[in-house]
Amino acid sequence: MIPRNARFWTGAAAVIVLAVIVSLSRANEYFFFAGFVVLQSVVLATAWNILGGYAGYVNFGTAAFFGIGAYMAVVVINATGAPLAVQILAGAAVSGLLGLGTGLLTMRLRGIFFSIATVAIIFIAETLITNWRYVGGATGIQLLRPPLMEPFGSYTRMLFVVMAVLAVIAVSIARYIETSWIGRGLQAIRDTEEAAECSGVPTLKLKLFACTVSGALMGAAGAPLPMYLSFLEPASSFSLNYSVAALAGAIIGGTSHWLGPVIGAILLASVQQIVTVTIPGEINVLVVGVLLVVFVVAAPDGVLGLLRKLRGKLRRPRAPAESPS
Amino acid sequence: MALSFELLQEAVLFGVLLGCFYAAVSIGLSVSFGLLDVPHVAHPAIMVLGAYCTHLLGRYGWDPIAAGVALMPLFFILGVGIYRFYYETFEKRGSDAGVRGLAFFFGVAFIIEVGLILAFGVDQRMVEADYIGRSLAIGSFRLPWRMLVAFGVALTLTAALTLYLSHTFTGRAIKAVAQDEPALRLMGANPVRIKQWAFGIATAVTALAGAMLIIVGPVEPSLDRVYIGRTFCVVVLAGLGSMTGTLAAGLILGISESIVLMTFGASWAPAVAFGLLLVVLGIRPQGLFGR
What we know:
Structural class of chain A: mainly alpha
Order of helices and strands of chain A: HHHHHEHHHHHEHHHHHH
Shape of chain B: globular
CATH architecture of chain B: Orthogonal Bundle
Largest interface: A-B, 42 and 37 residues
CATH topology of chain B: ABC transporter involved in vitamin B12 uptake, BtuC
Oligomer: heterodimer
Distance between the termini of chain B: 39 Å
Helix content of chain B: over 70%
CATH class of chain B: Mainly Alpha
Helix content of chain A: over 70%
Strand content of chain B: under 5%
Number of strands of chain A: 2
Distance between the termini of chain A: 40 Å
Radius of gyration of chain A: 20 Å
């Protein structure tokens, strides 16, 4: 039996190698266009789960961190023309700071109050960007893609690989948090914050840490967006759709395990892509809302919970019926 | 940016009208969230739904206010249904209701919004009535009639609900369930039925609020997003569940928004409510008139 850690890292490396190989193949360009979006939602759902799943703080503000990450990339491009890696680092850094700020401002808030405060952050961030001419203001900004990097055949293919790497990083961080004392502390906060505090869990520090890491990952996910679209405007970058998708991905997959958001996001984003191609209009967005409500009502532990139940049933086939009463 | 005295007067006057309107759109939430503790983030979406229903009836020649009143029984039933469902699936099971309830209402809001886009498209919709488009001139001020109508309905609605909650038997039962549910249970009353009734009333009031929403200006499906900020700002600022507080908080928001609108321009206005909300949450989460 291979140890769990080795298995995870082999899998992670395999995902990146696979992404590179596929990007060098002659696969249809649309595959990368859609694949980028799917991987992006994996990063967002995983980042959301660090705060929302482990600590139980429902963040509606994914769009704020995502949008700020995207706009930080624009600032970097405008100011220095630095490469994508720098843009991503800048987006992650600023969104991480925003996460820390959110955490500090809302440290006394719980439940719905915290959630509403995060909605407020989206709108304030959007208003600031809308009124900031340097990054294009309300009309948006057109961006020129830099020349291609070898050996990638197109820019979208390269961004696809970059997003795959980001997804692996995000999942590794989430997995590390989950399996370390930090994750146990966050789960204690989720169960009963007072009891956790009394038992010596540094609740405030952990919450701030989770806010920062979650925000930074969302920012990193947003940073490649300007280059992906080669155009950016505030209304769609700060769209509430990102918030709903991140939350829905995590809840549909299952919030208790790092694999949950990965499964949920891939499932949700793929279904969305398929619906987008087959049915025109807004049905693809409706799917997210409907699936979210269905899962939250009927399968609160998500796909992972359903799988666990199924496995439990297979192991004990009709055991209670056979036992004499 | 220099604000002349006259301009300030006009801003305050307009802010008062706007503020009463904000109080009226928030009063349903003040009951459902403030009193009943339901994390009802779908409240603004239901209001926008009400506005679209008013628009539909308007096509058949209904006056928007009459349409709003006619919609109230329907929305009452809708509200009872929503609460019943919420209670059965989340509140009764207790564990983890917070996270899941929030996600549920967030999802419902999203479904309503996208449903409206599918049914009506993203274009702005409005209603027609005699008082829309005209304005009343008092001295040098011009007050649009649509704002005055909304102002009147808002005041009536707030007063009616305040009186209902403090002077009728059911109203006081609703307040009692907010104050101490176990005690009410010991008195032999059924808290779930009272809450269901209260949630129905809150939703019915929201239908009328939706009618006012479309009187005050054109609506679009995504309008609920801005109103998440406005309604929650008012309810939190008011101190949860306080009706007179709701009116005062609405006025504070209306006047601040109107002044920002006149000094900095329309693009900053949506941030006012959210900024105010963050400040209140950060400094005094129990609100100005809190219990």
